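Field guide to reading this record: the first block holds the primary sequence, the second block holds the structure written as discrete tokens, and the final block holds curator observations. Each block starts with its own label. This record concerns Secreted protein, catalogued under organism Paenibacillus alginolyticus.

BLOCK 1 — SEQUENCE
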Amino acid sequence: MKKIGVILLTLAILLSACGKAATTDHSARSENKEQGHAGHESSESAADTEGIQAVFKLSPDPVQAKQETEMTIQILDKNGKSVDDFDLNHEKKMHLILVSQDLAYYKHLHPTYQGKGLFTIRAALPAGGNYKLFADFKPSGLAQIVKSYVIKAGGEAAPSKALQPDSKLTATVNGMEISLAVDHLMAGMDLDLTYTFKDAATKAPITNLQPYLGAVGHVVILDEKADQYLHVHPVDEKSAGPEAKFKTSFPKSGIYKIWGEFQRDGQVITVPFVVKVP
Ligand SMILES: [Cu+2]
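BLOCK 2 — STRUCTURE
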């Protein structure tokens, strides 16, 4: 309990005792060792999604930093036929996460569905170097799927720094003091991530968070190599603060970056924390 105690806040324990919402775990997970190819699934319901492919195309290709790039993602079934119907998942048919290799740059995008399994979006990469895309979607009748793709962008690279675990999981963003408590930081175990929101100046609890994509917040987690992708949804989606609680499980020990996305006063904020999972 020594190290764990640092992160453990009694608050998390109090909260877990009074959870009233359904505790369905909506985590989607991708373990992808291959570089530059559509990923292979390893979710519990892999059989359901067997053979579903995501074909990523970039234009122009090769990609140049700071230049608008069109990204297209074509979803095909195992016979190469387009998958046409997708369920809305948190108000969107596809969530697309774009990160730089060192995880310093993070963007959460929502491509436009053009029909016949084709999603498109335009984006510009901030600097040269490697990036990874994670497309998170749910074909109707199938389980949620995550496919990834590596982008190599030409141009001057940003200085890359190694991922360092945060010594304290508190940050101030847009006048809010946001703290993250993890009940027991340990690999392979279900655990609670609890965000607490206070007014940075008065320390008063914040209770007017707004729904963002139909929930109090969204959490995306990647390991330092960006092999393990976890998209986590809240336990109590309707919460407006001062707490937002999520359930997840870190697949193995290592360093992970956790981005929490929330909305207040019409503004979406992203708060990142880096943790070391023993
Ligand atoms: Cu999204």
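BLOCK 3 — OBSERVATIONS
The radius of gyration is 19 Å.
The longest strand covers residues 254-264.
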